[in-house]
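quick one, 352 residues, struct below
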Amino acid sequence: MYIILAILVFGILIFVHELGHFLAAKWLGVQVNEFAICMGPAIFQKKIGETTYSLRCIPIGGYCAMEGEDEDSQNPRAFTSVAKWRRVIILAAGSFMNLVIGLLFLVIFFSQVVSYTSPTIAGFYEGCPYESQDGLQPGDTFYKIDGERVYIYQDIGTLLSRNQTGVYDLVIRRDGKLVELPNFKLEKQSYEVEGQTVELYGFLFQAEDATFSRTLQQAWLNGIDFVRLVRLGLEDLFTGNAGIQDMSGPVGIVNLISETGKSSQSIKLGILNVLYICSFLAMNLAVMNMLPLPALDGGRIFCLLLTAGIEAILGRRLNPKYEGYAHGIGMVLLMGLMIFVTFQDIFRIAVS
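---
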């Protein structure tokens, strides 16, 4: 069931992305030749005005085919004929819709939560060495760790784990003011919790009731945090802290969603946990698609702006075929990476 749900979610994310392009194109006067739900051969087609609306047989995604998007066209309402600022909005609209659906998933998820753990210290375990006048105190709220904002409670563990030195630059909010605690040493200590010895920093955090406004705030902050996690992941790839072997493609993500759902205590909880993962996938897709890489919408926007700058300097229009070559090469490289990651996922699942 969860595998089917994961596949459907992938389809929804792609469909919503294409819907963003479609709505923006219609709004800004670009001719849309076809808007398709799903892929493959058409099951049903109906032309309304200038646009053919299609339902296709493979239940994955969809597409928005705009006039002049991939070929030369003399139509004044072709994608390449309208003002560049309109094209930028149309290209960015897909990622914008992914952000919207990601936030919607988070609102649905958090609407089922009765309370939240905040990043505010309520107290300390007995013997915790970090409670002092010069250190941390009850009521302190973690604001920054090593320069990164703390949006939600989970950020504390995430950001502390990224620094292997055990020495942190902390900024906490105390009595409405920001207090800096530079070079603050934090190490986990052994504490007895419910008859078991566990390794903890020794902080106890406040719980807050899930009011309507707090639910919306929590969804928004989690959305911001998801975008930041994508950025940190990219930083790790560039700095060598992570490699291609740490990446997952559709097969790995479907397996993760399936395992998350099956390990949940109930079907309802399983669906909610899957929804939480899918909100991260939506945010991930939105950010990754806006990277200035060929074949991605971000790459097309980058080429559009770069071309506009060069044409302004040279005073003449550049041949669009060169941009087409760049996007074609980018697509081949992306497909190669996707194939490699997919086989890596299959091998990882097979040996686990």
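The chain has two domains: 83-114+213-352, 115-209.
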